[in-house]
Design brief:
Elements: E1 4-13, E2 16-26, E3 31-35, H1 42-50, E4 57-62, E5 65-66, E6 77-80, H2 92-102, H3 107-120, H4 136-148, E7 154-158, H5 166-183, E8 186-191, H6 194-200, E9 203-208, E10 211-216, H7 218-223, H8 228-234
Parallel strand pairs: 3-8, 3-9, 6-7, 7-8
Antiparallel strand pairs: 1-2, 1-4, 4-5, 9-10
Helix pairs in contact: 2-3, 2-4, 4-5
Bound molecules: adenosine-5'-diphosphate (ADP) and magnesium ion.
Residues 13, 18, 36, 38-44 line the site of adenosine-5'-diphosphate.
Length: 238
Amino acid sequence: MGRIILEQVTKSFGDVNVIPPLDLEIEDGEFVVFVGPSGCGKSTLLRLIAGLEDVSSGQISIDGRAATELPPAKRGLAMVFQSYALYPHMSVRKNISFPLKMAGLDQAEQNKRVEAAAKVLNLTDYLDRRPGQLSGGQRQRVAIGRAIVREPAAFLFDEPLSNLDAALRVNMRLEISELHNSLETTMIYVTHDQVEAMTMADKIVVLRAGHIEQVGTPLDLYRNPRNLFVAGFIGSPK
Ligand code: ADP
Ligand code: MG
């Protein structure tokens, strides 16, 4: 589960084309990082996959199913928002179980999934607190917990660490990598941070003005950047 294929996907806002025809294959269980400068279309691409934006043309399939016409909730993906998207008046438990409640799961199943996610994320002792009583890192873990309980085919992260301080960012980077190792679920991770890309990715997709400059493992891109733009982004001279 978690194989995502984009075929000739385009996106325009009005007359402005933001994503020219783009093809991409993401394998089951891969940790894929979209990297590129601000405004290059990373968030747009993620939102197209999530179904939060409609493609202008082209096809997206998820595990062999045509996803392009499906609403976000039917795609089986979970977008992880930054921690400030938590509900401040709800406990951690309620924040994490919220999507399950919306989906109509019974209370026992909700509790089971929340407790399993809390265990993975070291939040077991914090389930009765409110987000305001947690550290930044704990809040970010709650946001991830809300995605985990849905048991998605893939997780989509849009710069999840950008509002954390530097030390915490390093920590969360490791935690998300460990989470990927234990869940073995596809993760698509958007960042403009080269270090995050190089240290977390199985596969890096380098974007520039909506098109893919190069796709490869961190080592591929480091050793054989196709051009100066990629080299500049990955940090090795060519
Ligand atoms: P990134 O996430 O890489 O910074 P975005 O995907 O947010 O880039 O944006 C890519 C381009 O699309 C930018 O030029 C941005 O202004 C434009 N864009 C994004 N969303 C919209 C929108 N809803 N309406 C019009 N233009 C948009
Ligand atoms: Mg963005």
